[in-house]
Structure formats: structure tokens, C-alpha cells
Amino acid sequence: MPRDEFLDVIYWFRQIIAVILGIIWGVVPLKGFVGIAVFCLINAGVLYLYFSSFQQIDEEEYGGTWELTKEGFMTSFALFLVVWIIFYTAIHYD
């Protein structure tokens, strides 16, 4: 798989994870730092397992594990926050 294509897959996979976790966090309802910390751990962990175990790629070819782990993270974090806030407010706001 070409480099740019693989990075695109990681980017969009993160966005899907962000939407799913944002909906779950909003419905459950999770609040505060715990929700943010668990999102970060799940997001980074799932992607690490994906590219190290499932795809079995050479991380150094893509700039190292850190480069792959942070690819698209901030945009997925922002999307997660928006979805989480919308669902939490829609369901639990009195």
C-alpha cells in the first residue's frame, strides 16, 4: 500500500472511532477528564494495534511509531468533542 494511501486510511479510521466514541460517551453519560483520557487511550491503542499487528507494516518506513500514532489525532479529538457535547446536551440537558 502506498505511503499516502495508508496514512489516509489511518486518518479516516480515527474519524470513525471519534464519532462512535463521541456518541457512546454522550449517551452513557461520561464527564470530564476521565472521558477525554479514555478516548485518547482507546484511539491511540486501537490504531497502534491496527498498524502493528493487523497490517504488520514497518513503522520506520512511515517515520516511526510516533508519526503513525499522531496522524490525524487532533482532528479526531476535535470531532470527538463536538459529537460528545452534542449527544450529551441533547439527551441529558434539563
From TrEMBL:
Give the main location. Answer: endoplasmic reticulum
Q: What is any one GO biological process for this UniProt entry?
A: mitochondrial respirasome assembly
What is the official name of this protein in its record? Respirasome Complex Assembly Factor 1
The keyword Transmembrane helix belongs to this UniProt entry's keyword annotation:
yes
* Family, as annotated: Belongs to the EMC6 family.
Q: Which InterPro entries match?
A: EMC6-like, RCAF1
Does the keyword Endoplasmic reticulum feature in the UniProt annotation?
yes
Cellular component (GO) terms are:
endoplasmic reticulum membrane; mitochondrion
Q: Which UniProt keywords apply?
A: Endoplasmic reticulum, Membrane, Transmembrane, Transmembrane helix
Signal peptide bounds: none
Bilayer topology reads: Multi-pass membrane protein
Q: List the transmembrane segments.
A: 9-27, 33-51, 72-91
By its UniProt entry, which Pfam families does this protein fall under? EMC6
Could you name the domain of life of the organism this protein comes from? Eukaryota
Cellular compartments annotated: Endoplasmic reticulum membrane
